[in-house]
Design brief:
mainly beta; Methylamine Dehydrogenase, Chain H; 2 domains; four-stranded antiparallel β-sheet
Length: about 375
């Protein structure tokens, strides 16, 4: 089953159709048991809630036009989902918490400012084990500022102060990779200038959680393609870690990490891209059992071509409710910017290339040329 949503041709949204859906945040905002979808247009001031129901998504409610939706979750522990959105300029960003529930007219319980200092992507998880979501921000401080990450701990009394990380990063997620009950902060550093001496092609860093937030006693772990057991070899501009996501792919209670290697060159094919999956364990994130796939891997539909950038987007989501996360891989560069999505199934042994599903714009009845299909995936 699928559903195609488009900008509303009956309003001035119709003029923005090519970038409709560039930013999305799913979650149940009105407490009716159905996930809704907050949709925006990246840098343009247009945002709406599309309401979920038994027949899918329908009906739209506009929100204040200066907002960029980022993530939905319960950030104050009251059992009701909230929306976090950003506004302001790159030089002067502001992150706001819109407490739920939301009414169908777009009103919400209350609004407050969250001090992150960064305008960029957001992810959520419970780092300190208090059963209230914490917020990880990844982005830039100002137009030419460093690529930073910060963590603010959530509580029933609101968010605490921001903790900045010293490493420059492109991506991030929160998940319990060692099964100790505390969410760990997983950061992706995909650009060459973000690496310590001796690391080439990108890396992933794990900052482990504790009752006090990020652990001050446990040493962070950095993994690259040159780490023993990780498939491939670190080469300049591979962009290992430029995008990543977390989820438990085999149901063993440890979160695993899917990593995009979007500019990986394979067998002489430049920038064709790959995806690597690292496993969680009682000792933390490990290269043991790591796998890497691309379009020339047996069972994966398609073929490696220059500048496909397979792995530009990765998402781990339990799509069938069996307690194990499946993997979605997207790139909007496939077939000259048509774009494509791949779905990898999971089982007791983890993800596999058995019965991988390939979905492109034509699959869902869309015109393919310059569609940029799968440019963004929700996390």
């Amino acid at each position: 089953r699928h559903q195609v949503l488009a900008s509303d041709p009956g309003t001035d949204e119709g003029d923005l159709a090519p970038i409709f859906g560039d930013l999305m945040a799913p979650g149940d905002l009105d407490g009716d048991g159905y996930d809704d979808l907050v949709v925006s247009y990246d840098w343009l001031p247009k945002v709406s809630i599309i309401w979920g129901g038994p027949k899918g998504l329908s009906d739209r409610t506009p929100l204040p036009s200066d907002l960029i939706p980022r993530i939905v979750g319960d950030f104050d522990g009251d059992g009701k989902n909230d929306l976090i959105a950003t506004t302001g300029t790159v030089d002067n960003p502001e992150t706001r918490l819109f407490r739920g529930p939301f009414g169908r007219d777009g009103t919400n319980a209350s609004t407050s400012v969250v001090n992150t200092g960064i305008k960029g992507s957001l992810s959520a998880g419970d780092v300190n084990g208090d059963h209230v979501l914490d917020l990880l921000s990844v982005g830039r401080r100002g137009v030419n500022g460093p690529a930073d990450a910060s963590l603010v701990l959530g509580s029933k009394n609101g968010f605490g102060p921001a903790k900045d990380f010293s490493t420059m990063v492109n991506s991030g997620s929160i998940a319990d990779v060692d099964g100790d009950g505390y969410g760990d902060v997983v950061l992706g550093a995909g650009l060459e200038g973000y690496q310590p001496k001796g690391v080439v092609g990108g890396s992933v860093i794990v900052q482990y959680g504790s009752a006090g937030g990020v652990s001050t006693t446990r040493k962070p772990v950095r993994i690259s393609q040159d780490t023993a057991g990780v498939p491939g070899t670190g080469e300049a501009y591979d962009r290992f870690g430029y995008d990543l996501d977390t989820g438990d792919v085999d149901g063993d209670g440890y979160a695993d990490v899917a990593i995009g290697v979007m500019q990986e060159s394979i067998s002489g094919v430049s920038t064709t891209g790959a995806v690597t999956v690292l496993r969680g364990s009682a000792k933390g994130l490990t290269a043991t059992g790591a796998v890497s796939w691309h379009q020339n891997t047996a069972g994966v539909p398609g073929v490696n071509e220059p500048y496909d950038m397979f792995g530009s987007q990765v998402s781990l989501v339990d799509m069938n409710g069996d307690g194990r996360s499946e993997l979605a891989v997207g790139t909007d560069h496939e077939n000259a910017n048509e774009g494509n999505l791949w779905y990898f199934r999971s089982g007791s042994k983890g993800l596999s290339t058995n019965q991988v599903v390939s979905i492109g714009p034509k699959t869902v009845g869309l015109t393919a040329k310059h569609r940029f299909f799968a440019r963004w995936l929700t996390k």
